[in-house]
Amino acid sequence: MSIAGARCLVLGGGGFLGINLCRALLAAGAEVAGYGRRPHDRSALPSDLRWYDGDFADHAAIAQAVGGQDIVYHLLGGSVPAQSNAEPAADVVGSLLPSLRLIEACRAGGTGRLVFASSGGTVYGPTLPGIRITEDAPTNPITAYGINKLAVEKYLGLFRHLHGFDAVVLRVANPYGPFQHARRAQGVVGTALAHALAGEPIEIWGDGLVVRDYLHIDDVAAAMVTAGTYDGGQWLFNVGSGQGRTVRAVVEDVCALLGLPRDRIVHRPGRAVDVPYNVLNPDLIGREMGWAPSVDWQAGLVATARWLRERSAGRRTGA
Amino acid sequence: MSIAGARCLVLGGGGFLGINLCRALLAAGAEVAGYGRRPHDRSALPSDLRWYDGDFADHAAIAQAVGGQDIVYHLLGGSVPAQSNAEPAADVVGSLLPSLRLIEACRAGGTGRLVFASSGGTVYGPTLPGIRITEDAPTNPITAYGINKLAVEKYLGLFRHLHGFDAVVLRVANPYGPFQHARRAQGVVGTALAHALAGEPIEIWGDGLVVRDYLHIDDVAAAMVTAGTYDGGQWLFNVGSGQGRTVRAVVEDVCALLGLPRDRIVHRPGRAVDVPYNVLNPDLIGREMGWAPSVDWQAGLVATARWLRERSAGRRTGA
Predict the structure, then answer these.
(1) Which of A25, A166, A172, B70 could bond to B112 as cystine, CB 3.0-4.6 Å?
(2) Does A260 touch chain B if contact means CB atoms closer than 8 Å?
């Protein structure tokens, strides 16, 4: 199947990854609809995107939306990782159960394929430093958010086994880039850039030596588009850069890029939800789909800073 | 800590494993209370057992029961594996959510340790024939029941990490022995023996070449008692015989034991929920707790047949 002309539904299309994915799918010639909450910035959604306002808990609306789609992208999350640990049961009710009902709705509605955005940063849990994690590594999440994502993967595996259900899972690394919410703790890059551009202190949680795998959102969206029509024998893939950076190095790169002094950096206490080291090995998706990260780190950082500046300039001038 | 005098609560104390565990704990000198549904056979529960009639969904009652216990045994299950696949969401609501709330109640109530009876037969999913599965093997359940058990394990791991919560997980193989419900499809041994003794045909699902790890319930109960006070560095263990038997061999052993002809065996269609091969490697619990299976297969079968005969004789005479 070609992505051009394919009917695609993006659940969570108004979020950071969703907006970027909708744009990438439209650019690839797909017929795209989004479902979820619209972003605050209405201009983020392209005008040729069909849109369903809807909630993840509204099973009837989701069942109707997925009917007859060639590809459904499931990007609807629950809480963010740190919050999920305060109320794990709420996360099961608000995210795991609706995900399971979504899978059942896709099966009943004849959806061609379900592509699930899992979390490469949380499903594995603590790993040895220096290791590039492969898909067969142990999975011991230290957040309820990660357990939730892992359970959805297991249900997709179950439905594949029992019903021949067509599902692809992408365990996505830490994405950064345009449309990332700086104020919702979605990621270090967006938060650091936004604080820096606003003239505010840049926070680092803990000693800043936590290592993460940062991937530009264009590369994530490209992997998801490709996964929509992939026809090989695998079904679960890491999507990462394969390179580790400390939070401190990221913040220092942001300061260097903007010509800021390092005393703008302030340290906050560490959190038990942060695994010390998380870098994904993306070899499998490379072999199977020919995907590889294409956006250079420095170039991605420059482009993201430019996008943030233009957006805030646009806001000031009312554009 | 010694098990003698320890305050123990067995959630699901009226089930097959629960009855046997309550008896073993009492025999070891523990102060034991049971919680759940009473067994049909009231004489199964020892008279010196305290009992709480209660439902798994009754969170307040469970929270009250677990308060101040040294060891809480969580044996409450949801549906049986085959049924769980018909309604996975019902399994999440009826079993995973109450398990999670139970963990939270134990943490809040100061429970000393939670011992969870997981399922060695379902959490791993399909494995290569001939392999004795170790605890670090991949976990790809082909039943919602198995996903559920696996998710509870992950939440216990999370609470260990976040809160230093004391939990031990036992992935139990296929238990057989006294108090197994022959009519509730709880296991091949009990069902085959009961049908044989009642003069009924003995059913085999599929070709009978499915291999399982059968363990006498006395050995399972002994492992759970020991796990209550184990103080080593591990927390998740297989509990199995380490030996595989085909369903056909089990049924033939039953026929041979009772002097029945093989034409009493009838074949039924196979089921997608049956993994072809499942044999657990019990080396870790052997090394860590000095536990080993002690009941010989033939001896266990003879004893179970004797128990079934005596029980049905007792019923006929009204004893």
Answers:
(1) B70
(2) no
Residue appearing with tokens 């308060």:
B67
A224 belongs to a structural domain: yes
Helix A144-163 with B144-163: angle, nearest 10 deg: 170
Please tell me whether residue A58 adopts helix, strand or coil conformation.
Answer: coil
Identify all chain B residues contacting A96, using CB atoms and an 8 Å cutoff. Answer: 92, 96
A201 closest CA partner among A260, A265, A270, A267: A265
pLDDT at B78: 61
- Nearest by CB: B101 against A89, A100, A139: A89
Nearest alpha-carbon partner for A132 in A318, A308, A281: A281
Kindly provide the ipTM of the predicted complex, given to two decimals.
Answer: 0.93
Q: Is residue B143 part of a domain?
A: yes
pLDDT of residue A273: 66
Identify whether B316 is part of a domain: no
Q: How many domains does chain A have?
A: 1
Of the candidates B212, B188, B187, B208, the one whose C-alpha atom is nearest the C-alpha of residue B129 is B212
Closest among A228, A70, A230, A235 to A157, alpha carbons compared = A235
Of A136, A140, A151, the CB nearest to B138: A136
Distance CA B167, CA A190 (A): 38
Could you tell me if A150 lies within 8 Å of chain B, comparing CB atoms?
yes
CA B164 to chain centre: 26
Cβ neighbours of A123 in B, within 8 Å: none
Q: Does residue B206 surpass a pLDDT of 90?
A: no
Residue with tokens 């009639």: B53
Residue B42: give its domain's CATH number: 3.40.50.720
Which residue of A107, A161, A274 is the best one to mutate when testing the B interface, meaning the one whose CB has the most B CBs within 10 A? A161
A162 touching B (Cβ < 8 Å) = yes
User: Which residue has tokens 């997709």?
Assistant: A156
Residue B131 at interface with chain A, using a CB cutoff of 8 Å: no
| Measured distance CA(B57)–CA(B46) in Å, rounded | 25
**CA of A289 vs chain B CAs: smallest distance (Å):** 24
Q: Is the dihedral of CA A9, A15, A17, A20 positive or negative?
A: positive
Is residue B16 within 8 Å of B179, Cβ to Cβ?
yes
Distance in angstroms (rounded) separating the CA atoms of residues B318 and A228: 66
Question: Which of the four pLDDT bands, split at 50, 70 and 90, describes residue A185?
Answer: low
- Would you say residue A63 lies in a domain? yes
Q: What is the dihedral of CA A272, B237, B189, B124, to 10 degrees?
A: 60
Alpha-carbon span B55 to B57, nearest angstrom = 5
* A147 in contact with B, Cβ within 8 Å: yes
Domain with A86 in it: 7-179+215-241+279-294
In tens, the pLDDT along A91-124 reads: 999 999 999 999 999 999 999 999 999 999 999 9
**B20-25 long-range contacts, Cβ below 8 Å, gap at least 24?**
B20/B177, B20/B178, B20/B179, B20/B217, B20/B218, B20/B220, B20/B221, B21/B73, B21/B75, B21/B220, B21/B221, B21/B224, B21/B225, B22/B46, B22/B49, B23/B221, B24/B218, B24/B221, B24/B222, B24/B224, B24/B225, B25/B225, B25/B228
At residue B115, what are phi and psi to the nearest 5 degrees?
Answer: -105, 120
